[in-house]
Amino acid sequence: MILSLDDAILRLKAEIIAQDWRLSPKRIEQLEAAFTSLGEPFKGRKAPHAMLVMATNVLGYIKKRGPSPPETIDFLKEAMAHLVNLHEDLTDDPGREEEILQSLFARFTTLKEKIQQKSLPPALPEPGPWPEAISEPGDEEEEAPAAVGLQQLITEFKRGLVQAGPSGVALKVLVEEWLLSPAVAAIIQGGSGEEGAGSVPLPSLPEGESRPCPPTPVRILTTSGLAVAIPSSVIALVRPVPPAKATAYLQNAVVPVKDFSRFLQRLSRQFSGSLALVKERTLKELSLPIMTPEGQGFREAPDSTFTTLVVVSNGNWHGALVCDEIREGEQIMTQVVRQPNGDLVGTARLEDGGRIPLLDPVAMLRREGILLMR
Predict the structure, then answer these.
(1) For residue 150, what are the contacts with CB-CB under 8 A and spacing of at least 6?
(2) Could you tell me which residues come within 8 angstroms of residue 192 by beta carbon, excluding any fewer than 6 positions away?
(3) Residues 218, 337: one domain?
(4) Are residues 173 and 237 in the same domain?
(5) Looking at residue 2, what is its pLDDT?
(6) With contact defined as beta carbons under 8 Å apart, do 193 and 183 qualify?
(7) For 320, which DSSP code?
(8) Are residues 45 and 110 in the same domain?
(9) Listed range (154-168, 255-269, 348-362) with the worst mean pLDDT
(10) Quick one: which H or E segment has residue 178?
(11) What stretch of H or E contains 355?
(12) 241-273 as b/e, with b when 16 or more CB fall inside 10 Å?
C-alpha cells in the first residue's frame, strides 16, 4: 500500500506520540507502508534518505525479534522525529541535515553494540555509506563489543590499584565513586553520556545496598503529599500555577508551553537544558504531558489543588510534574540506598544528614513523556 506524502508523515507523527510502545503487527505494517511511501520523496535528499534506511532496518529487526532491547523503540521514535522535522523545516540547510545524520548514525552503531552484548541475533545490518536499498544481514565475524572490553579494562585497573597497597586502595574508592556518576555510567554502557546526564545513579545496585555517589544537587518537591528528591539536572523550568490554570491542565492532561510566554522575552530563554535550544515556533506549538509518579504513597491522579509546575527534561525527552510545592535552593545528595517502589528508586542521603525518597524522572519520561528532536 502506497500512501501520500502527507498521510505517511501523519502515520509517523501518530507513532511518535503514541503512549503504548508495544508495536502490534498492524502498526508495524502501517509503519512499513509509511516508510515505503517516503522512499521516493526522500530519495534525492542524502541525509533523510539514510535516516529512513536506518529506521526501516530497525523496524525490520523489531518485526522479527520484538522490541528487545528497549533501545530499539527509542531509536525508531528518534529517527521518525528527525524525518518529520526535516520534512516540515522550510529552510534548506544541508550542513544541519548532515550533522543530524552523523548523530543518528552514532546512535545506530551504539544500538548494534547493545544488541550484540545481549546476544540477540541477528544483529542490525550495517547501513553502509548511506545505501540505496535495504540489505539483509549477512554472516559477520564476531567481535567483542567495545563496552565489554572497556569493562574488562576497568576491572583490571581496579585490581591493580588494590595490589598497589593502601594508597592504591584509597584511589580505588575514589575511582568507583567516579564510575557511579550517570554520565560516566552511560559512556561505559555504550552511549555518549549525554542522555544519562540527568538519570538517577545506582540503578543496578542490589536492593537494600547503599553506595556513595558523586555530590549530586537535588531539589525537594512535594507531590501527592509526599516529599521527594529529584536531580536538579533534569529540571528545565519551575512555574507557579493559578487555580484556574491548574484545573484546565488536569482536564486536558497536557500543559501548552505557549502559556509560559512573556512580553518581549523569548520563550526558549526561560528553559534550561535541551528545550532552550528548540526553535521558538516549535516551542509555541508544543504541549507537555502531565506525568503521574507510580508507586506506593502516590495518588492515582494529581490533585487539582496543585500550585506549582515543574518541567523536566532528559536528552530529547520532556514532560511536566505537578506538585504542591518545591523548596527553594538545592540540597546535595551523597549516597543512595536502593529500595525500589514504582518510580522511587530508593532513599537519598543528603549532605546535611537528612534522608528522603529519590524519584526517578527518567523512567517517567520514557513512559509518559514526549520525544522532541531539534
Answers:
(1) 188
(2) 106, 110, 186
(3) yes
(4) no
(5) 78
(6) yes
(7) E
(8) yes
(9) 154-168
(10) helix 166-179
(11) strand 355-359
(12) beeeebebbbeeebbbbeebeeeeeebbebbeb
